């Protein structure tokens, strides 16, 4: 069994960007009602607020001041703080892997702008934090949210120590060509139109590339807006997300001693989060609590 940390603060549920992060509170509470925290190898760490100095590693002072004037300032601080805490504990070996439940998005946040329910680049913030503390250098981000992660791609476009694999629906939004820059370490692939096709796509495109890159840690952005009752591709059932978790965890186990951080803002209806979140943690912690098997796809 793995030691798994869950990073969450009640502010992320109570003050979530609710038109996007619909299932945050329900997702966390499902871990309590399902008895997941009763297992000794699963621990809840209350997310701390990030400091302005920590956020300034990726974002401009002008943008930080702008976000400070919005109603999303506090939830953004705790969302980023959860990511920083998880990054520290995983890379220090205190836990094997982690789930970060955030109250806002993140991957559309650039240095001095953002859109789509994002304010600071939550998924990207762990990287400069780890490097500042000499905890790691090479990282991989696998992003299975519906939309292209234009903020991450912009912030890290020249960073060859970051492998960024983004699954995105090219017909969802219009992007500048520069947002979709493709290099050996910055890649985009299409989503599937069913659970089986989505998992097959991830199984085909992710494992070999990550193994060849040899990151110190893998970040997985588990976007749930691909669910059929959400606002994105509307292609998947809730059973797809534990299936994706199994693929990405197997890669982490084989290439970086299991070091994996999953970030989600539960951007699907609450019933989806109530199903998916406990099963993702079940996968991470190797609890084998659930008899129902996740959807699978064969390459």
Number of structural units classed as domains = 1
The best one-word shape is globular
pLDDT under 50 segments (min length 5)?
Answer: 171-175
Q: What is the arithmetic mean of pLDDT?
A: 94
Considering the chains and any ligands shown, give keywords for the structure.
11 helices, about 300 residues, 8-stranded parallel sheet, Arginase, Chain A
Give a description of the structure.
38% of the residues lie in helices and 13% in strands. With 299 residues, the chain is α/β, with parallel strands linked by helices. The chain has one domain: Histone deacetylase domain (Arginase, Chain A), CATH 3.40.800. An 8-stranded parallel sheet has the order 2-1-3-8-7-4-5-6, with helices on both faces. Strand 7, helix 10 and strand 8 form a beta-alpha-beta unit. Helix 2 packs across helix 11 and helix 8 runs parallel beside helix 10. The two termini are 27 Å apart. About 2% of the residues have low confidence.
Helices and strands in order:
Blueprint: E1 4-8, H1 10-14, H2 24-33, E2 42-46, H3 52-55, H4 61-68, H5 73-91, E3 97-101, H6 122-132, E4 139-143, H7 150-155, E5 162-167, E6 186-189, H8 195-205, H9 207-213, E7 217-221, H10 240-255, E8 260-264, H11 270-285
Parallel strand pairs: 1-2, 1-3, 3-8, 4-5, 4-7, 5-6, 7-8
Helix pairs in contact: 2-11, 5-6, 8-10, 10-11
């Amino acid at each position: 069994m793995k030691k798994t940390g869950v990073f969450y603060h009640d502010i992320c549920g109570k003050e979530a960007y609710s038109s996007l992060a619909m299932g945050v509170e329900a997702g966390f509470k499902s871990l309590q009602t399902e008895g997941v925290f009763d297992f000794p190898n699963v621990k809840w760490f209350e997310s701390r607020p990030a400091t302005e100095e920590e956020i300034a590693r990726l974002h401009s002072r002008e943008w930080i001041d702008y976000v400070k004037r919005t109603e999303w300032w506090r939830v953004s601080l705790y969302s980023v703080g959860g990511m920083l805490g998880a990054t520290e504990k995983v890379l220090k070996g205190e836990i094997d892997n982690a789930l970060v439940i955030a109250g806002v998005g993140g991957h559309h946040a650039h240095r001095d702008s953002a859109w789509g329910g994002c304010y600071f680049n939550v998924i990207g913030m762990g990287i400069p934090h780890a490097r500042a503390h000499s905890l790691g250098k090479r990282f991989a981000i696998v992003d299975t949210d519906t939309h292209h992660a234009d903020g991450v791609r912009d912030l890290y476009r020249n960073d060859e120590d970051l492998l960024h694999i983004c699954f995105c629906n090219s017909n969802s939004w219009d992007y500048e060509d520069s947002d979709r820059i493709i290099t050996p370490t910055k890649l985009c692939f299409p989503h599937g139109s069913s659970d089986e096709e989505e998992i097959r796509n991830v199984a085909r495109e992710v494992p070999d590339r990550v193994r060849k890159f040899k990151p110190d840690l893998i970040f997985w952005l588990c976007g749930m807006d691909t669910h059929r009752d959400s606002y994105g591709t509307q292609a998947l059932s809730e059973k797809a997300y534990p299936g994706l978790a199994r693929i990405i965890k197997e890669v982490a186990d084989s290439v970086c001693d299991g070091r994996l951080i999953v970030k989600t803002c539960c951007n699907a209806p609450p019933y989806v989060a109530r199903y998916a979140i406990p099963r993702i943690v079940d996968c991470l912690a190797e609890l084998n609590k659930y008899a129902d098997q996740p959807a699978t796809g064969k390459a």
